[in-house]
């Protein structure tokens, strides 16, 4: 087996008495779209928070490209090429759609306080960033809103902007927390097609949390299923969906 | 005749313009910290006072020590001696101003760095309160510890760097022109700085620090820089004020000053330097026109303390703005980089094609 791009080794995370993650282990392979499924409260978002440095795990370690990133602050995780989106979008409210995307661009020298006043030092990066931002807006059908402030967007548009920033970041691996929740089916399919495109053309790895499996599974290479903070199944989508423990976890106490 | 009258009101005009420059510098630097980066630095006056104490203390002590054979800086006699020294020595007079400016910037930035420590750990309201108190503690110490700026009495004899030109009004005019130029330079610098990816970085940290961190922004560093830079610029305002007033008085640096400056920023438009120019102008004029000295000048006799009217008007203006135009007279604009220009062209081209 190839070495995974992201390795989560027996991670445990508790909130008081609540065990949100219980010795969870993942091996995410490069250049695949991996789905993380599980009922509400099963620990999916918590897992992303632990991996990207927003929470510190109680136990266990996280490796990205062989580097131990356990407990590294989020901005350092980003710098290694791992970026996440938020289940509830967190746009920069008073910035425009274009500015939101530009802010996510990787390595703009103009963000340095010394170089900022010298336009020459960042002009080129800024131009490239704008071109890339318009490409992304085109894909996400946001172009007509390029100059609108983020607070004026609809819920679905904010979701799209959230995805757009992740795509803008030039990350090698993107973790998306329910990217298509609240987005119309046609566009949802297009978003997944775009992910496939990025996977095939530039080799981006995706880990996607989704509840809308009827859309998402079609584009999925591999699935991990969580229930009550525990990993209950993994494998090809068809196999995992047929797994009795997964079905049980969704139907839950009703059975 | 006319010339005589002009000559008579010269100090009034130079005071208005110098104070406008000082307020503008304060408002622009607070705008960087609060408007752009979202740190509610309600202790901003403290950083101005740091510049003021540096200017006064450094100038008085070093002048006394190097040229006047020591002596207590608070004594009237040494204050007089410092004035005479500057009268006779242009190089010394101007040299101490430049030195104060340089050291003031450094020390102001240092205190800004220290103050950014709570700025990373406290929530907005707690932070605002903490910073007000940091500033007040500074003032209370200076008020009671004579070695800083002669306590309640104040430190005098900090000579105008152009005192040697002879005519007092002329030295005021030259000083004022310089103050306006310094304010203009700071404006241009901050305009460039904020209309760059760095300005966007500060705004992203302001709008959502969690999202900013997830997109690689080092929140501590961004806030730290905003505080360091904003505080060192505020210190410049302190130095300018001291050499104009030719003295330092701890009680000039009360929290009210911060709120006057804050009202300039809110009125003009947060995160908009052009708006701040306007906001600072309006509030400075209000400050100037609704004052006993102005009414005396136009020969109107008033029987009560008009200062309170000024506070009432300022309050009404702020509340009205917050109610009806919370974004200020000139609202925040997108960061104006080359990127925005390209974007506009892209959009125009597309429209033409379809
Ligand atoms: N910061 C927190 N403090 C306390 N409890 C938390 C915190 N974050 C998550 N939890 C708890 O951990 C459990 C897992 O939550 P998590 O958000 O990871 O679920 P999820 O799988 O993403 O669910 P959903 O599909 O509804 O988004 C829940 O019981 C939740 O209440
Ligand atoms: Mg979740």
TrEMBL record, chain A:
**Superkingdom of origin:** Archaea
Q: Which InterPro entries has this protein been placed in?
A: AAA+_ATPase, ABC_AA/LPS_Transport, ABC_transporter-like_ATP-bd, ABC_transporter-like_CS, BCA_ABC_TP_C, P-loop_NTPase
Q: Which GO terms describe its biological process?
A: amino acid transport
Keyword set, alphabetical order? Amino-acid transport, ATP-binding, Nucleotide-binding, Transport
Write the protein's name. Probable branched-chain amino acid transport ATP-binding protein LivG
Q: Which organism is it from?
A: Caldiarchaeum subterraneum
* Biological role: Probable component of a branched-chain amino-acid transport system.
Q: Per the database record, which ranges form the ABC transporter domain?
A: 6-253
Give GO MF terms, alphabetically.
ATP binding; ATP hydrolysis activity
Cellular component annotations (GO), alphabetically ordered: plasma membrane
UniProtKB/TrEMBL annotation, chain B:
Q: Which domain of life is it from?
A: Archaea
What GO molecular function terms would the record report?
A: branched-chain amino acid transmembrane transporter activity
Q: Where in the cell is it found?
A: Cell membrane
Q: Which GO terms describe its cellular component?
A: plasma membrane
Keyword Metal-binding: yes or no?
Answer: no
Topology versus the membrane = Multi-pass membrane protein
A Pfam match is BPD_transp_2
Q: Does the keyword Transmembrane helix apply?
A: yes
Main location as per UniProt? membrane
Signal peptide as annotated in the record: none
Transmembrane ranges, per UniProt, are 6-26, 91-114, 172-190, 225-247, 253-271, 276-295, 307-324
What keywords would UniProt list here?
Answer: Cell membrane, Membrane, Transmembrane, Transmembrane helix
- Name this polypeptide is given: Branched-chain amino acid ABC transporter permease
